[in-house]
Amino acid sequence: MRVHVADHPLIAHKLTALRDKDTDSPTFRRLADELVTLLAYEATRDVRVEPVDIVTPVAPTRGIKLASPKPLVVPILRAGLGMLDGMVRLLPTAEVGFLGMVRNEETLEATTYANRLPDDLSGRQCYVLDPMLATGGTLAAAIRYLVDLGADDITAITLLAAPEGTARLEEQIADLKVPVTIVTGAMDERLNEHGYIVPGLGDAGDRLYGVV
Ligand SMILES: O=P(O)(O)OC[C@H]1O[C@H](OP(=O)(O)OP(=O)(O)O)[C@H](O)[C@@H]1O
Ligand SMILES: O=c1cc[nH]c(=O)[nH]1
Ligand SMILES: [Mg+2]
């Protein structure tokens, strides 16, 4: 598993505003949207392309276009939905599948409550969106699920990650034969006793959509 921590002052600047407990929901949504576009630029560095011949007003030339099959973007509900628009702005031809997952706040175990994905992901490059990699349980289950459907290249984009969760995720998917990359806006200090990222930003889903 490859882990890429974005190192860019604009990302750090926007993350600082996102973390602030006084940042309201509309501003939080806008920042999450802007951040994912910046992170997606890095995350799509290895997106598959194929050559295409075109003619400019001056001369014929060979360029590139996104290869088929199109990449699949998979936001993990709820909080991953806050990253979807920013991602598809950069990859407008991508298809989108959905996974609904929730972490039990006592046991910290993730369960899946919704799934709207193609039946066969053979040969597909997948981009998973989830703002928080905390214990890593949610992403481990999501990645395993996509690989079981045939995905052969997975990149997860997170806004924040915790070192313990990243290590645990790596252990939990060590047997998978497909390349997995994590692109994150920051690697925070640690998890607290409730499984929250420290300093973190609190509950991403609640901050995007309100407390349920
Ligand atoms: O790495 P983990 O320890 O598994 O935790 C991370 C998960 O927790 C949050 O989701 P949550 O369960 O709060 O659902 P929500 O997005 O609906 O709020 C977050 O959006 C991740 O999906
Ligand atoms: O810090 C955390 C950990 C899990 N889920 C969140 O939304 N925030
Ligand atoms: Mg939540």
UniProtKB/TrEMBL annotation:
Cofactor entry: Mg(2+)
Binding site for 5-phospho-alpha-D-ribose 1-diphosphate: R78, R103, D130, P131, M132, L133, A134, T135, G136, G137, T138, D203
Domain Phosphoribosyltransferase: 5-210
Regulation: Allosterically activated by GTP.
Keywords: Allosteric enzyme, Glycosyltransferase, GTP-binding, Magnesium, Nucleotide-binding, Transferase
Record's keyword annotation contains Transmembrane helix: no
Manner of cofactor binding, per the entry note: Binds 1 Mg(2+) ion per subunit. The magnesium is bound as Mg-PRPP.
EC assignment: 2.4.2.9
Keyword Oxidoreductase among record annotations: no
An individual GO BP term: UMP salvage
Residues at which uracil binds: I197, G202, D203, A204
UniProt pathway: Pyrimidine metabolism; UMP biosynthesis via salvage pathway; UMP from uracil: step 1/1
UniProt organism field: Oryzihumus leptocrescens
Primary role: Catalyzes the conversion of uracil and 5-phospho-alpha-D-ribose 1-diphosphate (PRPP) to UMP and diphosphate.
Family: Belongs to the UPRTase family.
One function term, GO molecular function aspect: uracil phosphoribosyltransferase activity
Source organism, top-level taxon: Bacteria
InterPro entries named in the record: PRTase-like (IPR029057), PRTase_dom (IPR000836), Upp_B (IPR034332), UPRT (IPR005765), UPRTase/APRTase (IPR050054)
Protein's name according to its UniProt entry: Uracil phosphoribosyltransferase
Gene3D superfamilies, per the entry: 3.40.50.2020
Gene Ontology CC terms: cytoplasm
Catalytic activity from the UniProt record: UMP + diphosphate = 5-phospho-alpha-D-ribose 1-diphosphate + uracil
